[in-house]
Amino acid sequence: MSRGINTKCLHLEESEGKVEHYGSISYPIYQTATYAHPGVGQSTGYDYNRVSNPTRDQLQKTLASLEGGIDALAFSSGMAAITLLMEIFEPGDHIIADNDLYGGSIRLFKNVCPKHGLKFTLIDCHKEKIEDYITPDTKAVYIETPTNPMMNVTDIKATAKVAHDHNLILIVDNTFMSPYFQNPLTLGADVVVHSGTKYLGGHNDTLAGFLVTNREDISEKLKYMYLTTGSCLSPFDSWLILRGIKTLGVRMERAEQNAKKLAEWFGSRSSVKKVVYPGLPNHPGYEVQKSQARGFGAMLTIELKSKEYALAILSKVRIIKYAESLGGVETLITYPTTQTHADVPEEIRVANGITDSVLRLSVGIEDVDDLIDELTRVFDEIESGK
Q: What angle do CA 68, 155, 358 make, to 5 degrees?
């Protein structure tokens, strides 16, 4: 019997009924760098921490289960995961990527990967025809959905069909939705990327990244590069992410409820020019999101009437923290122009709608009335000139 996702966040099916590790309910932290061998040619199954670790293995099995993959690898950060993923490609290979990605991904694709001979074409994957950009050298399509920070929604199933019709790998960054709301592998993706720092960890207290795949050939390539490059997640950080995943479902549900209410509140303010949230029926990707996910998430973006108004909000919030990152239990507000997307060329930022009056919110699990009270105070103070 297949378990529900909340149960999968807590229990691996293969471990049901077993009493291991002295009955410890919290999976132990195996804080070791190396392992003793019983004898020559004999092994406990573990040799060296860069290769494998029991705590990390438990985490990787959990992620594979949640995403419906055959394998998952845990990294020291989301960017470490994406950087290693690029190592499965060869010099001269071409990758089509969305142009509204996390700024760190764009920085990697434009400034680092080309030194290794990789070529990238950035397009609006949610509305442009990918077929028009495929060349004989194209090997993959890389998307986020919803995108960061403009919340564009790409049809994963349709994109997977195009990719596979041309023998391309489809890579989906699923950080914003988490496996609780969306499972790209079941929709045709070949590789799923996560910044585990965000919703999977959920407490803004550690860095992590993941690659999950349902293809044996890709898994073997990734594991070889993982062993070789050594960007694995530490045992203690693996335990922190395991702990965070236990409450993934309840956190995602509460944060999404809050995000919907805040999106509606922002829509009532005349100083807000635009509210971008996939859970609003007027969002262009609303129907696609409904068809491919179990929810809309807790990320939203607003555009204010001026840069000065946006900066004033950042200086006046108190419960809501002006900070980079997302996906924790606390509500954070981010200024993409100088934070997450500071290294993205201005012409690309502006073309994507990331102006100097845009703010991104990662909505947390506080009492939503307190968040609305704070925002009401902030907006009223700005509009009264205080």
A: 105
